[in-house]
Write a structure and sequence with these properties.
There is one protein chain. By secondary structure, this protein is an alpha/beta fold. It has one domain (4-186, 219-249, 283-301, 329-335): 3-Layer(aba) Sandwich (Rossmann fold). It is 42% helix and 16% strand. The protein has helices spanning 13-25, 65-75, 89-94, 97-116, 153-172, 194-203, 223-236, 253-263, 289-294, 302-315, 317-324, 327-335, and strands at 4-8, 30-35, 55-59, 79-82, 121-127, 176-181, 184-185, 208-211, 217-219, 221-222, 242-245, 250-252, 271-274. Helix 1 links the parallel strand 1 and strand 2 (30-35). Helix 1 (13-25) packs across helix 7, helix 4 packs parallel to helix 5 and helix 6 runs parallel beside helix 8 (253-263). The radius of gyration is 19 Å and the shape is globular. The mean pLDDT is 96. Bound molecules: nicotinamide-adenine-dinucleotide and thymidine-5'-diphospho-beta-D-xylose (TDX). Nicotinamide-adenine-dinucleotide binds next to helix 1, helix 4 and strand 5.
């Protein structure tokens, strides 16, 4: 049956991939992509779908209460899948304010709007960073019961939004789910994040900044596997539940950077160790048992996923070159310690 789905942040990395995934899988659904088009959003990635009858773009700020409430009243969405956020930890360290406005206030506005039209489901896309950090003991993982102990302004803003989502379920009975995912990578990943930054810089034989000693661990998940998990939670998730999403692909940052350099046949002398990130979380690792019981399995290993991703960046140089030539380059030049 046809459904109206509002995807917030659908011009960004994961939301953009999710829009493509849903249009491909559910031609009977109407997809509304709402995005403010900050530095992190672009519509070039949607050129091939913008003519579709069941796709519509809406430029708006999720924190603009008046506009968001009247949009929901007009469109009466069935589902909301909420990706829109300020997402980069380093930016939250230099300028936390916008993270509170978008990630906390914006989420609360959307919750009010969703409540006012009684949506069938509100999926809030969160992050494993709300759990804080793990030590290097490989037998420890984040579960849905791990206490929230966010360490950066970014993760604190996401944890705050998670608590609001929970409260709207407990207080008003809003049918919600929260997903907490590990580090994503894949097509259309903005080149300020480790993997696309490394690929784009190595291709240009530029130095790659590795924070601290490069031994921090992240648990990498291909974005298509993340999209499939969100689709499953949207349709099968038990209201009020949290689902962690990750595929047991733990790597040190140095291992990731070296894998990319070696695949591209370049020299490891491109690696430059730079000043560590403030409050740099040591390790993230997800226990995905709960979402596996719901029926989810990742299809990519880190090795197959990174090979596919490198291929994609080689084939789509025009997309990332355009981004690197804009406002982002000014940000990198001002903030990098290279
Ligand atoms: P992104 O930064 O690539 O995209 C964010 C999008 O939100 C952009 O298109 C931007 O224009 C839009 N946006 C920002 N502020 C807005 C506002 N006020 N109103 C409307 N739109 C606004 O982020 P991403 O990496 O695709 O992450 C998407 C979501 O997934 C975020 O909520 C993030 O916290 C979460 N997440 C990301 C990862 C990851 O590894 N990238 C992992 C786990 C969870
Ligand atoms: O230049 C760099 N050098 C470096 O060593 C950058 C940009 C990062 N790093 C390190 C820091 C992290 O340990 O690489 C690791 C990954 O960094 P990011 O790509 O910035 O991701 P991270 O901070 O782990 O957060 C990501 O995953 C969780 C997303 O950006 C978040 O939105 C998501 O919630």
């Amino acid at each position: 049956m046809g459904k109206k789905i509002l995807v917030t942040g659908g011009a960004g990395f994961i939301g953009g991939n999710f829009v493509h995934y849903m249009l491909g899988k559910y031609p009977q659904y109407d997809i509304y992509n709402l995005d403010l088009l900050t530095y992190a959003g672009d519509l070039i990635k949607h050129k091939h779908v913008e003519e579709k009858d069941n796709y519509q773009f809406i430029k708006a700020d999720i924190a603009d209460r008046k506009e968001i409430i009247s949009l929901f009243e007009k469109e009466q969405f069935d589902y909301v899948v909420h990706f829109a956020a300020e997402s980069h930890v380093d930016r939250s360290i230099t300028d936390p304010g916008v993270f509170i406005n978008t990630n906390v206030v914006g989420t609360q506005v959307l919750l009010d709007a969703a409540k006012s039209v009684q949506v069938t489901k509100f999926v809030h896309v969160s992050t494993d960073e709300v759990y804080g950090e793990l030590d290097f003991d490989p037998s420890t993982f984040f579960t849905e019961e791990t206490p929230l102990q966010p360490n950066s302004p970014y993760s604190a803003s996401k944890a705050s939004s998670d608590l609001l989502v929970r409260a709207y379920h407990e207080t008003y009975g809003l049918p919600v789910n929260i997903t907490r995912c590990s580090n994503n990578y894949g097509p259309y990943h903005f080149p300020e994040k480790l993997i696309p930054l490394t690929i784009s810089r190595v291709l240009k034989e530029q130095k790659v900044p590795v924070y601290g000693d490069g031994q921090n661990i992240r648990d990498w998940l291909h974005v298509e596997d993340h999209c499939a998990a969100i689709d499953l939670v949207l349709h099968e998730g038990v209201n009020g539940e949290v689902y962690n999403v990750g595929g047991h692909n733990e790597k040190t940052n140095l291992e990731v950077v070296k894998a990319i350099i070696n695949t591209l046949g370049k020299s490891e002398t491109l690696i430059e160790f730079v000043t560590d990130r403030l409050g740099h979380d040591k390790r993230y690792a997800i226990d995905p048992t709960k979402i596996e019981k719901l029926g989810w399995r990742p299809t990519y290993t880190f090795e197959s996923g990174i090979a596919q991703t490198i291929e994609w960046y080689l084939d789509h140089q025009d997309w990332w070159e355009q981004i690197l030539s804009g406002e982002y380059q000014k940000y990198f030049d001002t903030h990098s310690t290279l």
